[in-house]
Amino acid sequence: MDELKKILLAGVGSIAYTYEKSANVVEELVEKGRLSVDEGKELSQELKRTFKDKSEAFNKKVMPLTKEDLKNTFEEMDFVSRDEFNDLREQVTKLEAKINAILNSLE
User: Fold this and answer.
1) How many domains does the chain have?
2) What is the pLDDT of residues 22-71, one digit of tens each?
3) Quick one: 1 and 46 in the same domain?
4) 95 versus 78: which is more confidently predicted?
5) Range of the domain at 35
6) Do residue 55 and residue 101 come from a single domain?
7) What is the per-residue pLDDT across 80-94, written as a single tens digit (0 to 9) for each?
8) Which PANTHER family is this protein grouped with (predicted)?
9) Could you tell me how far CA 52 lies from the centroid of its own chain?
10) 20 and 52, same structural domain?
């Protein structure tokens, strides 16, 4: 679950970083006189709207994930469930006990 959270946060972070860099470029163009102040404001507003729309679209795709959606995704990726892991752990413990019993009987 932490890995999925990291992936989602990385996506959001990259959107924020791209917006920040784009805003800096617009500001720089205004400072250099390549864009008027009004053009810069308009472009900044357009960037803000675009990134807000993209962010909302991203959230609509990602946020509705239910526990069942995640379970299905993990199954498709052949992740082991906690129950399966615990069963395997129990089997390993039993096998270790058998091996130790065999080794002790050989001594």
Assistant:
1) 2
2) 888 888 888 999 889 898 889 888 888 888 887 777 777 766 667 787 88
3) yes
4) 95
5) 1-60
6) no
7) 888 999 999 999 999
8) SLR0058 PROTEIN (PTHR38664)
9) 19
10) yes
| Interatomic CA distance for residues 56 and 59, integer angstroms | 5
DSSP for 14-61 reads HHHHHHHHHHHHHHHHHHTTSS-HHHHHHHHHHHHHHHHHHHHHHHHH
**Amino acid, res. 103:** L
> Is the domain of 55 the same as that of 73?
no
Terminus-to-terminus CA distance in the chain, angstroms? Answer: 46
**Count of H helices and E strands in the chain?**
4, 0
Q: How far apart are CA 68 and CA 91, in angstroms?
A: 28
- The token pair at 78 is 């052949």
